[in-house]
Design goal:
- The chain is mainly beta.
- It has a domain at 3-87: OB fold (Dihydrolipoamide Acetyltransferase, E2P), CATH 2.40.50.140.
- Helices cover 7% and strands 48% of the residues.
- It is globular.
- The relative contact order is 0.17.
Length: 125
């Protein structure tokens, strides 16, 4: 499953690093404000090399490909939103969708739902 969040980088938090039994680690969080009628602010974490690969900047519009993971500690649950890939909105490949942007919207074959539900039937309601 590929979960994606699109929005504007509102804030970049300080990078943290440390040493674990598996070796050194580093992470950086940033706050993404989503688009839409009810925008949300979401804290997204970048780990290791992904920090350098996608150097996000405040005010930049990005698409974050994320994994969501929850874990339990002492009876409390904590959820992390981890970005495994970040694309700048300006660099993201555009995909054309049927019926958008000047494409020919004429249908050649009816969809399965159109075949099942004939709009000219004489239903009493």
């Amino acid at each position: 499953m590929d979960l994606q969040l699109k929005g504007t980088v509102e804030q970049i938090l300080e990078e943290k690093s440390g040493e674990s039994k598996n070796g050194p680690w580093r992470k950086r969080d940033f706050i993404l404000k989503t688009d839409g009628d009810y925008p949300k602010q979401i804290c997204i974490t970048q780990w290791g090399d992904s920090i350098d690969k996608a150097d996000v900047q405040k005010g930049e519009e990005v698409v974050a490909h994320i994994d969501i993971q929850s874990r339990e500690y002492n009876g409390n649950w904590y959820t992390d939103v981890k970005a495994w890939k970040i694309e700048k909105a300006s660099e993201q490949g555009t995909t054309s969708m049927p019926g958008k942007g000047g494409e020919d919207t004429q249908k050649t074959e009816p969809s399965p739902s159109e075949e099942i539900f004939d709009v000219d039937d004489e239903l009493p309601f």
